[in-house]
Amino acid sequence: MKMVVAASCAVLFAVCTQAEPMMTTWGEKVTPANAWRGYPRPQMARANWTNLNGEWDYAVTSVTNTPGRPAKWDGKILVPFPLESALSGVGRLLEPDEFLWYTRKIVCDPKPGERILLHFGGVDFRTMVFIGHDEVTDVPHEGGQNPFTLDVTDYVKKGENQLTVCVWDPTEDFINSRGKQSFMPKGCFYTRVSGIWQTVWMETVPEKYIKSYKVFTDIDKGTVTLKFEIEGTEGTERTEGTVEIENPANPVNPVKKSFALGEQVTVKMPDGFECWSPENPKLYHFTAKYGLDEIKGYFGMRKIEKRKDARGHLRFFLNNKPYFPIGTLDQGWWPDGLLTPPSEEAMEYDVKVLKDCGFNMLRKHIKVEPQRYYAMCDRLGILVIQDLPSGSGSPYDPVRPDTVKRYGLQRQEMKEMMDDLQPFVSIVMWNPYNEGWTQPGEFLTHAMLDFTKRYDPTRLVNGPSGCWDWEGGHLLPKGWEWENRVLTQHKPDGECEAADTVDMHLYRGPTMFAANDRRISFLGEFGGLAHSVSGHLWKEPKDGKGNWGYGGIEDTKTREGLEKTYLGLMDKLGEFAEQGLGGSVYTQTTDVEIEINGILTYDRKVLKYDPEVLRKAHAEVVRRALKQKEER
Fold it and tell me: Which one of 74, 109, 146, 510 has the fewest beta carbons within 10 angstroms of its own beta carbon?
């Protein structure tokens, strides 16, 4: 793999203006044999599966006048790393007028009574899939963020089969979801990503199998309810399923319950069950069977809601207790893998650093991570606010026609994301809109928020985050810099305000909307203190220029100045927490390309702060937020 990466450096020089691509410690160890080998769907694991990551042949052709699939291939690409990344071994930009092709052989053994499923964790953006000559995508899949599955049973033969994938990715030239991908990376917009960027895999299932499930926990009643979607039951005899949940009081005697097709199964948890939280990330594992199919999963007993505290302030309540989420804006971007983390150990490192620094939450901003990421958050214990990655369209302009054109695909992507991630206990709030990006007018904004609220009652709904809040927010003082971002006072009593928070963004900040009786006052972005660490920059500045931060740099050039300034922000944040601020998101976890706002450098090799200092400062903010009325 090192030879492949080295061969791509000349191309990457043109893309990134780097003589050498920046590599993380984990990226330096990536090989075709070890690239993302873990089971990709930890909430619904089966035994009989095949990982298709590794080296594939690839080619790039013109969209126009393409006679068919490539007759020859350009070289090897390492799946699941996107074309533009160093770890793919290619490091080439894909243009909107080009197709990206992949091919490899797969070995299949179709048998009567079984189905063969082909899974793609993420492909950006439009995907067509072929087995031999036959296209197996009835309709090309559109959406760069969410996984999709194809039943290829009727297309494969015993032995070797040729699998071919064709991808078109217009980045900014269509209505697709792209997050911060850009044709011209600068500021807070980054190098674009194309093609396969999450694990590709196959599994064999019985003709009747568990397609998905949702989990609903009730800590007050002490119950967990599982609702299974079963595939392959049309016109066939119905089968009874069973669920076995681990019993902490008696490990050799799990709690068992049967269910019929179409039924949800509710299980009473044993006395003394533990609730999941960042401080106690307790998970309960289960096995579900339906006919010949068997899956393994887990859940956490968790309740998230908005409620008034003893001082009358609306706050987040976690498991019936007031809670102050304090976290970072997390882009999930990597210098060597771009959207794709170099390894599971790499992404786990990020979360462990946040925990060590006293954060209990992160806001996943511009991407949907591999499902193993959310399982890791469940296991380590950190709250997740999940954004719907934005699509094309200018921020701060809700009347642009392309925002309305995009709305159907946007709702589809939102629904798919909520379906795919519903079982992960760490996710506590959805965020459909950020700073007006791809946000339509008042009616469609409310429709999206209201749909999100109804579709997943197990979580809260943020927003809109930082801009264009027609749900009923708080008018800003006349002449204030961002006065257009919140447009209305609260709606009349009895009229729906679909969001659970009113969300302020301010750099440096902090600040807050006044506490109110309808929605939690939330600080969705602030800080962004810039600090440059020489030798760990994606792009070394020329004449002292070229890198930037939201919060300026003059008083944060030194580590001492950075820490002093940060602690000043935390002291002010504590004041707002006492006044009813419900939670905060600091920008950001890591540097990204020319952004140098991170707690960590982009290569994750330098932590810019003393974690103990941050941990104490964050604990003090939380203490001030949650102190009892009589302490005032």
Answer: 109
